[in-house]
Every structure is written in structure tokens, then in C-alpha cells.
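@channel sequence for tomorrow's demo:
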Amino acid sequence: MAKIRAPKESSPYYIPKTYYMAAVRYALQYKDWKGELEACRDTNSGIRYDKDRVQTSGDYDSTYEAAVKCAELSRKVDLIDDILEKVAPGLESYIRLSVCYGFTFYNLVEKGIPINRNEYSTIRQKFYYELSTKI
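C-alpha cells (generated this afternoon):
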């Protein structure tokens, strides 16, 4: 994974380091959320085994719980996707690899990123700035 450097105070996308690091860690969870979102479509878990007695009816609704979990995961994934579309139109896939999967600029060069390092850094900073204002 690339070394993470927060923007300097002179940058138009400056945010305090703690907010910057929170945004970085939030974005790195994208891969896990995508996997959970694919897995949460299964709502066949109608019986809870975490209690002393098995209850098949009552106040617990597994379908509702699964739907809430799926909605929350979908909201998080969509937030990152929407910000990527906003800050990097046409380059979403490259920037997603960087901010969500930890690819370095040199990994992206091998994949054919069509911008230079300065433009790439500016887009990443703008992404983290926008993300920090939304989370």
C-alpha cells in the first residue's frame, strides 16, 4: 500500500490529519463492503441461535435486519462511487483502485492511467476532502 501523506495547509483540499486519516480508512473498507453487500442478499436465516431458546417467531425479523444491513452497505458504497464520479469523471476506475484497494501511482501507470502524478495527487486529495465532508 502507498504511503499516506495528508495535504499541506496551503492546499485547497486541506483537512486536518485526523479527518484525512479517517477518510482514508473509510475508503479502504470499500472492498469489504462490496463483498458483504454481495453476501447479504441471503435472507434464509430465520432462526436465531444466539439465545438460550430457539425462537421461530417474535420480535426478531431476519429479513428486516438483512434489508437494513444491505441498505447501510449500499449507502456507503454509493457514497464512495458518487464522490469518485464527481471528482474524477472518466478516471473513476483508476482512482478507485488507488483509494479503495491501496494501489500506488506506479501500479496505476502499469494499468495505463492517462494522467501525470501531480494531477493524480490533486484528484486523490480532492476525493478525500469530499469524503471527509460527507462522513
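heads up for whoever presents: The chain has one domain: 17-134.
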